[in-house]
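Issue 218. Parser rejects a valid record. Input:
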Amino acid sequence: MSAQDVIFAEDALQQQSQKESMERFRDLLSKPGLSLQEEVSIRLLYSKSLEIAGNYDNAIEVLKIYDPISVSVKERAEIDLRLGCLYKLSGNLPKAIALLNQAIKNFKESGYEASIGEAYYMLASSYIESEEYKIARDYLLEAVEYQRKSSESSFLSWIYLKLGFIEYKEQNLSSAKNYFCQALSLAKELKDTLLQSVSQINLANVEYNLAELDEAQHLYQSAIEYLELLGHTKLLGIAYNLLAKVLIFRGEWTLAEEVLSKSLHFSQFSNNQLTQAITTQIIGYLKYQQGIYEKAEACLLASLETLSTFKDSSYLAESYRLLALTAKERNLYDQAFDYSKRSLQLTFKSNPPSCAAVSYMVIAQIHLEKNELRTAEDFLNMAKAKLEQEPKLELAGYLQRLIGKLKFALKDFHAARAAFNQSISLLKTAKSVYQLALSNFEMGLFLAEIGDCFNATTYLEAASQTFSKLNLNKLEEIARSKILSFPNTLVPATDYYFSFSKNFEPSYVERLLEASHQTELILREFVSIAFEVLAASSVAIFQFDDIGKISLIVNQGEIRAKTPAIIELVRQQNFSNPRLSPRTMAVKFTDASKKRELIFFAEKQSDPSEQQTLFFQTLLHLTCQSLEICGLRERLKTTREFDVSSLKFLSSMPDFLVHSTAMKTVLEQIHKIRSSTVTVLITGESGTGKELIARAIHYESDRRDKEFVPFNCASVAKDMVESRLFGHRRGAFTGASQDQKGVIRAAEGGTLFLDEIGELPIEVQPKLLRFLQEGEIHTLGDDRPQHVNVRIIAATNRNLEDLVNNRLFREDLFHRLNVIRIHIPPLRERREEIFPLVEHFLKIFSERMEKNVRLSEEVAEKLYSYNWPGNIRQLQNEIERIVSYAEEKHIATIDDISPEIASYKRAKRSGSIESTNGSRIQVSIPMDATLAEAVEVLERFILSDMLKKNRGNISRTARQLGLTRKGLQMKRTRLGL
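Output the parser choked on:
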C-alpha cells in the first residue's frame, strides 16, 4: 500500500465525497500485507467517512473488531475516541461517556496529548445532551487547556461555542456573549465562513434575549449572507426562522412572512423535516397574532404531526400552547383546556421553567375568560414561581398583564394598576411591540373603567397606533371607539394616585425589587413610578459617558423633541439644588452595578406636594439599592468557586465529616449534579461510606423531600430479588399471598439506592436495564408495565469492568449505570480524616455509654498508622470497642486496642538527604504513604534543618525559603515544629 493511496482516500474524505472515500477505504483494507498499525489507521478513516454519511452503526462495526490487548495504548485510545463519538451520535450516551473516559485515560498513559482536547470536547457534548451542564463545562475547560497547546484554532472555536451554549442555557448571557465573541473572532482570523455564520447565529440568540433587537437582526442577516454563499440549505432554514422571530417581535409582520416563506423553501429543499415543522409552527403563531385563527389552527396541527416524531418535546409543547390560545379565542374552552394540559405534561418532562410558566399562564387566561378567578390566581402564582427560576422579560410582562386583569376583576384597583404598569415597563425593556400594545390597551380600558379618562387616552392612543401598523383592525376599532366615548374636556388627575389609599406605597417597592434582575428594567420601573408619583408630564434618565457626553437612556412622556435643550440645561446644573425651575427638577445618582453617573430629569404639571417629594426621595434610594442588588447578582453568576458550606445535606447529616482534598472533590461532584436526576455509580472499598454519599446526593437534590430507599442486592436470596425490586401481585408465584409493590415503587418520586449492584443476578439485569431506559417496571403478575419516577444510585466494591469482561454483568447495564461515577478513596489514602473521625466517634460512644474516654498519644499514633482495610466502618467499630471495655474515666493505652492494630507497622522506604552543614541525614517514608504525606516528611526535614542553621531566626529562614514570616509560622504550626 502506498502513502499516495491513503492521501487520495483522505482527500475524498476531507471533500466529503462520502461514496468515493468509502470505496477507496474498502479497497485499501482488502490489500494484502497490511501491518496492524496501517489497518487501524485505515479503519479509523473509514469509520469517519461512514460517520459523515450518517451511517453510525456500520462505522461502529468497522472498529469493534479489535481486542484491547491486540493494539497499542495509543491506538486503543484513538479507537475508543472514534467509537465514543459514534455512540454519542447514535444516542447511546452512557456507552459514549465510558469509552471517551477510557480514551482520555489511555491518551494520558501513552503521553499522546494531541487528541485529548477532542476527547474532552466529545465527553462534554455527551453530558450536554444529558443536560448535565456543570459537568460539561468542566470538561470543556479541560479541552480548552489542551487545545491551546495545539495549532488547531478552528476546533478551539467549536469549544468556545459549546461553552457559550452552556452559559446561554443557564441564562448567564454576558458570559455566553463573551464565549461566542471569542469563537467569532477566531472564525474571522481563520476565514472559516461556516464557523463564522454559526458563531453569528449563536451571538444573535444572546442579543435577542438581551432585547438588543437591532444587533440580533444584523447578525442573523450577516450569517444568512455567508450561508447563501456556502449553499448550506439546512442552516439557512434555521437562520431564516430565527430572523423571522425577531421580525415578529418587532412588529414587522409583512417582512416576517417573506422570511418564513424562504425558510420553508430551504427546509423543504434540504429535506429538514424538523426545521420545516418549526417554520410551520411560527407561521401558525403569526396567524394567531393576526387574528386569523382558522389558518393558525391548520398550521399548528400540521406542525404537531411532524414534531411528534422527534425527541425534543419543547417544540411540541409550544404547538399545543398556541393551539390552546387559538381555541380560547374561538370560545372552544374544553378544547383549549385539553391542549393546555397536553402542553403542561410535555413541559414537565425536560423543558426549562419558563416553558411551564407559559403553560400555566395560558390555563390561567382560560380561567380568567370563564370568570373563574381564584383558580386563575392559583395558576398565575405557579407561573410566577417558575419565572423566578428563569426570568424572561416578555413572559414576565405577559404575566403582569394577566395579574392586572385578575386584580381588576377582583376590584383590587391599586394592585391592578401596579401590575399593568409593571407589564408595560417589562415589555418596553423587552421591545415586544405586539405584547406592549396589548398591555397599553388593557391599561387604557382599566383606567377608563375607574374614571381616569385623561390617562386612559394616552395608553389607548399608543395601543391604537400599534394596532393600525399591524393591521389589527378590530382591536384598533375598539381602542378608537373607547377614546371617542370619553368626555370632550379631560382634566389631568394631578394627585389621582394618592387619592386611593395611604397604604399603596408597598406596591412600588415590590415593583422595584422584582425588576432587580436587569439594570434597564430597574430604570424603566423607576421612571414609570416617578412619572405617576410626581404627576409629571415627562420624565427621563440621562447618562454621563467617559468623555463627558450626555445621552438619553430611558424616558416617559413627551421629551425626545426637547432632549437637546434639556441636555444643555442639565450640563449647566451643579446639582446642589435639584430644582431647575418651579416645575422642573434634576437629580444626579450612581448606578453601582455599571459604575456610571446618571441624571434623573422631570417636568411637572404643577408644584409637587410635600408627600410627593418625600416619596420621591425614598423611591430614588430604593432604586439605587436595586441597582446595587442587580450588580451583585451579576457578579454571583460569574463566581464559580465551590463552597462546601453551601451544600444543603451537611445540615441534614451531622455525621458527615470532610477534611481531605479527596473528599472535598467528591463533595464538589455532588454539588455539580444537585439539580440533576442522572444515574450515579458510587465505587469504593467496603466501609468507605458509599451509602452516606448516596444519601448526600439525595438530600442535595430536588428529591430531598421524598423517600430515600436503600436496597442491598447481596442480602436477598437470588430467586427473590426480582420480586423485592419490582413487586408482585397476589398469586403471581407460590407463596405470594398478598400484593407487594416492591422497593422501586416504594421510592416513587425519590431515590432508590442499590448497594452491592455487582451481586445483582444476571437474569434480573435486563428488567433493571429496561427500567433505567424507559422508566417503566413490569410487576410480577401484571399484564402491563407501569411508569415510575425514581432516581437510581448504585454502589459496588467490586470491579464492574472485570465482571463485564467475564460476562457476569451486562455491558449495556454497566454503561447505563456509569453515566456519573463517584469514587470514594479508602481511608488509608485520606489519613488526614482519621483523627477527626476518631474524635467524632469517641464523642458519640462516650455520650451514649456515659463515659469519659480519651486516647494516649501512643494509641493515636497506632490508629493513624494502621492501614484500615475495613475503612471507616472498621475505625468506628474499633472506637466503640475501646469505649465499651473502658472504665468511666479512662485513658486508652496500647493494651486496649485490637492486637492487629497494636502490632501493625507500616513498611518504610529510607533514603539520605544532605543537610545544610554537609552531613547526610537518614529520612524514612512509609511505603503506602500518599504524596501529601511524603511531601510533609520532606517539608518537616527542610524546615527544621533551616531553622537549626539560622539558630531559630524566623525572618531569615522565611526569606531563604521564599516564604513570608506568617507563612513560615503557619507551616511550623501545621508540622508541629
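Fixed in the parser; the record now loads. The CA atoms of residues 44 and 79 lie 7 Å apart.
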